[in-house]
Amino acid sequence: MPTLGVVEGFFGPLWSWSQREALLAILAPAGYSRYLYAPKGDAALRRHWDAPYTETWLGQIAKFATVCRSLNVEFGIGVSPYALANDLSRERLRVLTDRLRTLSSIGVSRFAILFDDMETDANALAKTQLDIVEAATAAVPNAKFIVCPSYYSDDIVLDRVFGERPSAYLDDLGRHLDPAIEVFWTGPEVCARQISATHLARVAETLRRKPTLWDNYPVNDGPRMSTQLHLRGFTGRDAAVSDLIAAHFINPALQPMLSAIPALTLVDVYAMGSRYDYAESFQEAAQRVAGTALARALREDLLAMHDTGLHRLGEKALALRAKYETFDHDVAREVVAWLNGAYAVSAELVQTQ
């Protein structure tokens, strides 16, 4: 069993702190031992990372860090220093390091420096980002670090959206980053259908370390995916890769309790190996999270919610809403909220978070 973690790294509406605690209460006993708080919607960590933290926000972070420690879960913070690479001055670096020291003072022992999903016009991209990481690690020398590259997958969609990647970008990062720093990688695609041992071995050679998987399943942010509920058990992942990765993080769906269902099936992927059955694992996980009757309903409606999607349900959406309103359970309330459009993520929201 590799180290399993949750990276709250999606676009869209923020969870409440009680929702995070409820998810951890399910996943920590199952084997998840790391939690990285880095939602795109928290401007304090992304668009406005350089603004002073409020006492209320710091208090919430400190409280949740304590909850994580009580469950033997390592808590970390992901900071996306938006546009810093485009204006890398000594003063702006000082602001970043001050923010990290503040977070360290309230008990954050793991930091992720995230360069994903932001435009940059830095000419020497790897060199600029290495300078940022060097300043960050020097500021909190006792902390542990993860870096997410700008090009965190082989997927050509990243080149189309953010410009063609520098030819030696990953090689330069891998060569010059401290070997103790982990590097996030999503696989051959941003939302990988399969992550093979052969692929991971090649990436490890380039990065000169085992990659830390940022698995974009069951995440369902974005205009298209937010119309679906990703509920099925994990597929395309093999227990044999456990020796080839530093850790395996999942990026959850917009619905925290529903996310627990596929999250539990990933434990089975590694624990059961060749005996893993994704449909059976889904059913057992759904019963564990939602109870027998609600799990049966989710299985009955899996095709409609996971594949058909909200915009194509038509009148069936009314029947589903009436069905799930009869259950007094957070899982059912998340389904109803999804049917009501509460989790819709627009292209404009993605571009502004």
Can you give a write-up of this model?
The protein has 353 residues and is α/β, with parallel strands linked by helices. The protein has a single domain, classed as Alpha-Beta Barrel (TIM Barrel). It is built from 14 helices and eight strands. Strands 1-2-3-4-5-6-7-8 form an eight-stranded parallel β-barrel. β6 (182-185), α7 and β7 (212-215) form a beta-alpha-beta unit. α1 (17-30) runs parallel beside α2 and α3 packs across α4 (125-139). The longest helix is centred in the last third of the chain and has 17 residues, at 256-272. It is globular. The two termini are 34 Å apart. The mean pLDDT is 96.
Secondary structure blueprint with pairings:
Elements: E1 4-8, H1 17-30, E2 32-37, H2 55-70, E3 74-79, H3 90-105, E4 110-114, H4 125-139, E5 144-148, H5 157-162, H6 169-176, E6 182-185, H7 197-207, E7 212-215, E8 247-250, H8 256-272, H9 278-290, H10 292-300, H11 302-308, H12 316-324, H13 330-339, H14 347-352
Parallel strand pairs: 1-2, 1-8, 2-3, 3-4, 4-5, 5-6, 6-7, 7-8
Helix pairs in contact: 1-2, 1-8, 3-4, 4-6, 8-9, 9-10, 12-13
Number of strands: 8
Task: Assign the CATH superfamily.
Answer: Glycosidases
Radius of gyration: 20 Å
CATH topology group: TIM Barrel
Largest sheet, described in full? Answer: 8 strands, parallel, barrel
Helical proportion, percent range: 40-55%
CATH architecture: Alpha-Beta Barrel
Global geometry: globular
Strand order of the largest sheet: 1-2-3-4-5-6-7-8
**Beta fraction:** 5-15%
Structural class assignment: alpha/beta
DSSP summary: helix tally: 14
Task: Please give the domain count.
Answer: 1
- Assembly state (oligomeric): single chain
Give the mean pLDDT: 96
H/E order of the elements? EHEHEHEHEHHEHEEHHHHHHH
Low-confidence stretches: none
Question: Which CATH top level class fits?
Answer: Alpha Beta
Distance between the termini: 34 Å
